[in-house]
Automatic annotation (TrEMBL):
GO terms for molecular function: large ribosomal subunit rRNA binding; structural constituent of ribosome. Gene3D superfamilies: Ribosomal protein L14 (2.40.150.20). GO terms for cellular component: mitochondrial large ribosomal subunit. The keyword Ribonucleoprotein applies. GO terms for biological process: translation. Belongs to the universal ribosomal protein uL14 family. Component of the mitochondrial ribosome (mitoribosome), a dedicated translation machinery responsible for the synthesis of mitochondrial genome-encoded proteins, including at least some of the essential transmembrane subunits of the mitochondrial respiratory chain. The mitoribosomes are attached to the mitochondrial inner membrane and translation products are cotranslationally integrated into the membrane. InterPro entries: Ribosomal_uL14, Ribosomal_uL14_bac-type, Ribosomal_uL14_CS, Ribosomal_uL14_sf. This is Large ribosomal subunit protein uL14m. It comes from the Eukaryota.
């Protein structure tokens, strides 16, 4: 359950590391796995060793899809899935990922919410 001012870890290679939720899009007051949110980048990868071709920088506003939540998620068979952190992947207006890789595990519910591109880029779905 991601609400206003919620901090999310960005797990793609777009250049951002932390993002803050400023709006939940079409999901009510809180966002869960697979929902779209509007975020502002709070921290990005910068420095002398990082390539200057980062796609996003601090202060940019982007759309993102929530891929993991700390709040327990109930599945149809009765199991509950809970992750250690809240994480998202930055997307453009057409819901295509900005980065070319996803660096960590995502929830399997992304496939059911028509985010199959994100689920296929991830190294593992749980």
């Amino acid at each position: 359950m991601i609400g206003l001012k919620g901090i999310l870890k960005v797990i793609d290679n777009s250049g951002a590391t932390l993002a803050e939720c400023i709006r939940v899009v079409r999901a009510g007051q809180f966002a869960s796995v697979g929902d779209e949110v509007v975020v502002v980048v709070k921290k990005s990868r910068t420095g002398p060793n990082i390539a200057t071709a980062n796609k996003v920088k601090r202060g940019d506003i982007h759309h993102a899809v929530v891929v993991r939540t700390k709040f327990p998620l109930r599945r149809a068979d009765g199991r509950y899935v809970r992750f250690d952190d809240n994480a998202c992947v930055l997307v453009n207006k057409d819901r295509e990922p900005i980065g070319t890789r996803i660096l960590s595990v995502v929830a399997n519910e992304l496939r059911m919410k028509n985010h199959t591109k994100l689920a296929s880029l991830a190294p593992r779905t749980v």
